[in-house]
Every structure is written in C-alpha cells, then in structure tokens.
Amino acid sequence: MSTTKLSIKNLYKIFGPNPKEALPHVERGVGKTELLEDYGHVLGLNNINIDMPEKKLQVIMGLSGSGKSTLIRHINRLIDPTAGEVVIDGHDVLKMDDVELRKFRQKNLSMVFQKFALLPHITVADNAAYGLKLQGISAGEAKERAQKWIDRVGLTGFERHYPSQLSGGMQQRVGLARALATDTDILLMDEAFSALDPLIRTDMQDVLLELQSELNKTIIFITHDLDEALRIGDDIAILRDGSLVQQGNPQEIIMKPADDYVSDFIMDINRSRVLKVETVMSSGEKGGSVKVEGGEAIESALQKLKDSPTKAATVLKDGKPVGAITLSQMIEAIERPAPETASGNVYR
Question: Is 209 in the same domain as 289?
C-alpha cells in the first residue's frame, strides 16, 4: 500500500474582495453560481480533501472552470487559499515563510507548463540546466546533469538550438528535461500535453510513462482529457465547479461512476482498452486452457479467448492462477451501461 506523500485538507479558495466573509456562505452550502450572483465572489475550490500517494501518478481532471489548475497552484503556493492545509511530507506548505518556501520550491518541486515556459533567448542546454542554476549547482555539474536528461527525452543533438527552432513536442521535451534534471520528489504537470497535436501528445505520454516506471516520482498531472487521465493515471480525482466529485483508480472510475456527471464523462470511452481482466474476473474459480494476465486489457484477452471452445480463460498473476473469466463477462463489462449513479462510492 502506497504511503501518502501529499494531503490536501479542507481546502477552500474564494476569489473576490472579501473571501473570508464569503467563506461561511460556502460552508453552509452556497454553490458557485449563487455565490457569484448573490455575494459577488467566485468559488474556486470548495472543501477539497485529497490524499496523493507517494511515487504514483495522480491525475486531477475536470472541464474548464472546474478548479483543477487553481488546485495545483496551491501545492507550490503560487496561490494562497482562503482556508485549509496543503501538507507535504508532514509539513504544511501554507505555514512556510518566504525563505522556507523558496528553498522548498527549489528542492522539492518541479513544474511542467502547458505553454512550455522556456526562456527564448537561451539554448536547449541552458534551458534544461536552468533549474539547477537556481539551486546553486556548479556550471560543470549542471551541464552534465542537464545533458543526461536531454538525452533521455530524445533531444540529443539539439543542445545548441533555441526554443523557436523546435516543434511544440520538442519544446515540451525540453520542459520535461528541465523538470527532471533538478531531481525533485514531486513533479507538477499543468495541462502539460494539451497544446500538442494528438500523435505528439500520445508520444509524450509514452515518454512520461517510460520515465515514471524507472524514476517513481510523485507526479500530479492536470488534464481535461479523460482518455489521457485513464491512460496514465494511477489515481484520478475529478473536479466539478470547484468540488471533488469522485476519486479512485481508472477501474473504479469506469465501473462505479459516482454520479451522472462522471457517467457522462466516461460514456464514449473504449472500455475494452481501459478495463483490466482482474477487474471483472471471478476470483478463485477455474478457467480453461487459455491463459490471460490479470493486468491485461480486456481488448487483448478477448482476442485470445474468441476462438476457444470453452469460452473461459484462466487468469494469472505472477504466473499463478488466481481466477477465471468468461467471454460473456468481458462482453458485459465493455457494453456501454445505461446512465445511473453508483451507490456506495466514497467521496473524499
């Protein structure tokens, strides 16, 4: 079980002239629309409580105006909340003074932005080393460490190029190299791939997943794209109008949507590519001669089972049988369900 790296507790953010005076209205149930119309304030975040696991990729998602980018800016305290706590490794970021906060940002957090945020007047090599320079690393060591990550993100040979000479995908690779070079525990990614073309975006997702499998960083990834969230996220938190609607792993989100809002989100996804065999299998039962892995996507398992006369497969985990799954179970799981609210879901 993963250790909690970051806890957001009872976090509120209200924009306006007197947010502290508006807070009691929100606490008694006034929503975003009513707060603006009746009290002239904008509700950014409404009592957010999220525990983010260490060394996992936490996705925060929602539509425009849901509060996801506002939330991530509280983690490195680019925004101060109206109320609440942001606790990282047992330390409340919101209680740090200027000196502590500056040191914390340099040593513990890196950020990758949607618009790349590269310095246009310096080279790829210097951009990748920029965070190290701020940390006070010597020029020689910074150059060596930056080069390592330039190579890892596939930009060898472009060290002397300037950002304007690179494509969007290449610029984002520079941003990723810069963030990884500082070797911080936490990586914040705010709509990092949203400005990229679909094929380049998928490629960057692959790069991120490959690096994460080796580095095991704590990554907080902001997106409005459910397909992206399901593809890369170990855990997903869905926001709506500043409130947390549901939190869970991709399998839980698909199989037990918390309400109609989440159901609408997942309506058109390809369930066979997202759902894993272990999610719908019958534990402890015996299957047929066909063998499938528990972590395998149903789409892949279907191909193996479709020509089997038994129509049932044995599910393996670490090479040992753990259950069985039938063709009918898989087909039922990937059929688009009628919209309904799942009961028993935990709101965190």
Answer: no
**What pLDDT is recorded for position 31?**
92
CB count within 10 Å of CB 300 equals 15
- One-letter-per-residue 3-state SS of the chain: CCCEEEEEEEEEEEECCCHHHHHHHHHCCCCHHHHHHHHCCEEEEEEEEEEEECCCEEEEECCCCCCHHHHHHHHCCCCCCCEEEEEECCEEHHHCCHHHHHHHHHHHEEEECCCCCCCCCCCHHHHHCHHHHHCCCCHHHHHHHHHHHHHHCCCCCCCCCCHHHCCHHHHHHHHHHHHHHCCCCEEEEECCCCCCCHHHHHHHHHHHHHHHHHHCCEEEEEECCHHHHHHHCCEEEEEECCEEEEEECHHHHHHCCCCHHHHHHHCCCCHHHHCEHHHHCEECCCCCCEEEECCCEHHHHHHHHCCCCCCEEEEEECCEEEEEEEHHHHHHHHCCCCCCCCCCCCCC
> Domain containing 191: what range?
51-266
The CATH code of the domain that includes 320 is 3.90.1280.20
Compute the average pLDDT of residues 322-333: 93
More confident site: 195 or 259: 259
Residues 135 and 230 grouped into a single domain: yes
Structure tokens at 174: 């520079």
Among 266, 284, 310, which residue terminates a domain?
A: 266
